[in-house]
């Protein structure tokens, strides 16, 4: 008996087609933190992004930050599973914030493993 290997990207594509969605929202909204899965490209290949999107206030509850924290993107890869944590200087996570962030991740061609900070709270709120 042959078992066909189904990749993580194929599983997500099937779920999204069945649910008629562009991404999987795994959290209740509005919130200070939201978990989302979506398809994208990274270093020339199709991947499933497992994203945790934070407001900076929510992130500061469990991480040490400065008085004027920078927004960030933090990408990790473990066994071909890609996680991306993103901290934004916004008051709450809602569908519009999620959709804008997915577009940003999909369009940004120079993403790389590691943490990358940008902007300051006082300049972005």
Outline the structure in words.
- The chain has 125 residues and is an alpha+beta fold.
- It has one domain (24-124).
- The chain is built from 4 helices and 6 strands, in the order αβββαββαβα.
- The chain has helices spanning 8-19, 56-60, 95-107, 121-124, and strands at residues 24-25, 33-42, 45-55, 71-78, 81-88, 114-118.
- Strands 1-2-3-5-4-6 form a 6-stranded mixed sheet, with helices on both faces.
- A hairpin with a 2-residue loop joins strand 2 (33-42) and strand 3 (45-55).
- The longest helix is centred in the last third of the chain and has 13 residues, at 95-107.
- The radius of gyration is 16 Å and the shape is globular.
- The mean pLDDT is 90.
The overall pLDDT average reads 90
Order of helices and strands: HEEEHEEHEH
The CA-CA distance between the termini, in Å, is: 59 Å
Percent of sequence in beta strands: 35-45%
- What's the gyration radius in Å? 16 Å
